[in-house]
Write a structure and sequence with these properties.
The structure is a homotetramer of 198-residue chains. By secondary structure, chain A is mainly alpha-helical. Chain A has helices at 2-23, 30-37, 41-47, 51-75, 80-97, 99-108, 114-140, 149-169, 180-190. The first copy, chain A, is 75% helix and 0% strand. Chains in contact: A-B, C-D. Chains A, B, C, D: Keywords: DNA-binding.
Amino acid sequence: MEAQREGKFDRILDAAIDAFAESGFYQCPVSRIAQLAGVAEGTIYLYFKNKEEVLIQIFQERMGAFITNMRGELSREETTEAHLRTIVRLHFSYMEQNRSLAIVSQLELRQSNPRIRQAINGPLLEYFHLIEEVIQQGIEREEVPQTDPWVARQMIFGSLDEATTDWVLARNPRTLMSAVEPLLTLFKGALRLKNRTI
Amino acid sequence: MEAQREGKFDRILDAAIDAFAESGFYQCPVSRIAQLAGVAEGTIYLYFKNKEEVLIQIFQERMGAFITNMRGELSREETTEAHLRTIVRLHFSYMEQNRSLAIVSQLELRQSNPRIRQAINGPLLEYFHLIEEVIQQGIEREEVPQTDPWVARQMIFGSLDEATTDWVLARNPRTLMSAVEPLLTLFKGALRLKNRTI
Amino acid sequence: MEAQREGKFDRILDAAIDAFAESGFYQCPVSRIAQLAGVAEGTIYLYFKNKEEVLIQIFQERMGAFITNMRGELSREETTEAHLRTIVRLHFSYMEQNRSLAIVSQLELRQSNPRIRQAINGPLLEYFHLIEEVIQQGIEREEVPQTDPWVARQMIFGSLDEATTDWVLARNPRTLMSAVEPLLTLFKGALRLKNRTI
Amino acid sequence: MEAQREGKFDRILDAAIDAFAESGFYQCPVSRIAQLAGVAEGTIYLYFKNKEEVLIQIFQERMGAFITNMRGELSREETTEAHLRTIVRLHFSYMEQNRSLAIVSQLELRQSNPRIRQAINGPLLEYFHLIEEVIQQGIEREEVPQTDPWVARQMIFGSLDEATTDWVLARNPRTLMSAVEPLLTLFKGALRLKNRTI
DNA sequence: AATGAATGAGCCTTCATTCAT
DNA sequence: GATGAATGAAGGCTCATTCAT
């Protein structure tokens, strides 16, 4: 029962990601989500309070898992360079493997609607914090000279985000993964990263 | 008459920028634009084919002027560092002085709606091209080592865009202008900018 | 089993009375009845054909019992004054002790929906008939001068009903019982009731 | 323009009265009102905030006018008997000439929905007050012995209301007007009305 | 018998667009 | 050109009823 229920919750969430990716949150009728999920329109309201809540859950469930995963990967690495590489690679590989979710993120990450904004902010701020931690650690380990971690984070996340947007909007895009090393080179230069000498 | 027409055209455009900034393109009724512009709803359809066209004109008129202006400023500078400083400063000062337009840009720059997308792309690609030219020139003048201008542009525009988004969404933001020099330092490091020796 | 069945039937009926009293028949979801009765929604459809049928049964069961009871009480009295007093007292005391049922009656007694109307009419017409019999007997016994029993019944029932409505809608009502004697005085005057001389 | 606007407001109000009379407020789709009024569904929302507001306006506009009219008629009469006759005759003749409004009144006068309730109460309490004033004056002029005007009003209004309900629900009703004198006789008896001696 | 998840018809309301004035 | 009343299509959401378990 519960498994079935869980199954339907996820099916609707997946369908909503595809549906929102198709046309954006406001342009997408709930009936389209139902159609893609293979359930009746009313069924969606058994699992979600309203349409807004579906979008909110997308960020809370999927982005939350992504960040938890990334935190785990980062804890296995020691150097700032390895940390940065992990961030760029995981970010790009996750987006590349979840194209619809990537599209929804690019479309809806910038919501003025306060309720949705609030819900997105949770995972997003955690992601920002995680990037800033990496930079801060680099400074403490003297791999990175004194820098404003906040501005550095804007550069790193902004670059990842812009690359993803380009990839999402391009018809025949380069793979995102092909941008990992060039971008890392830029980040290392920007942060004046020294190789750590033991 | 033509002047009057222009006057009303611009009044509607300014009103639409504020209106879209308030609540986003799809959430904003045409009646709100009319209200802010001080004209009747029907009047808007004398100047614009439909609501979509209003958004399109915002990018074509306002972003177009912004880019033309930036191109002029850039032509007065010689070094890559000066070029980059001009881009960052103009980008931030323009956004800071046109907060509503900044909001609309952040909200609507990532539209999946194909018609709108197409229209945004014009000015945006020109802006991208302009940034890439600066980098290309830097490479040719040997101020910048061999780099992929496309990836470098993603980093530069992505950073500017992300900083603007942060500023737009923050309640009590730092001024954008205060981020000019820190960001420039990062860009110079990323591009391994050498001071040109004559 | 039959006892259990009866038990659940009555539990649903009681729950429905409270539920309909809360928000009115059309405003009340079947789920609310189920919730108050402590049964599943589907269970209700084992005991009642549909939602309408629940309302119909309320009148048939509860109002039916009320009228049967009143008929019994009346048969123990001799004079028209005693009959009238019995009607007023039983009407008010029953309503006062079954506030939710009183509310449902006041709300739904006037239904245009023909099927419900039809079902309410059964008990109601019997009640009307009972009142008219009392008047008719009064005339035959020469306690009451020639009167139209139909109009007199309208006055009596209308007064009782209006008093009940006032009581139901008032926030801090007088007790209904406190209106028994004043109302009786009015009725006696209206019917020009003579004390029966043997 | 304004005349036209007024015309459409009234046309919608009249249509709504008929539509609500057909099936009750909650059972009646807004589309039915629009159909009867000969306007588009959306037009209704140019004149009324929502469906609830239409019902509220019915009571405020139509019942308000009825009461104002009755107050005028009463001021032209001197004796309590004449006052009572005016009330009964106007009540019945108004209902008889506005059958749909009468039905709506009988259906919706007893609303538990608090917002609607509130709006109905205004005119209704004014009507109650008017009846109680007539009784109070009768007492002061010594045409009526000491009585509780509140209970007397319950009897009078309750009788009128019940007679109207009977008439509304009957298939082949007696005319309401035929009940004027029988009911008056009852009222006079109930209030022990003396002919005023000069 | 009892459950409650699932269904889908139906309704209120919004809003882009038109057009008579 | 300018107006704004009118239109009607479209969509989010509720809820009576069913049915597999």
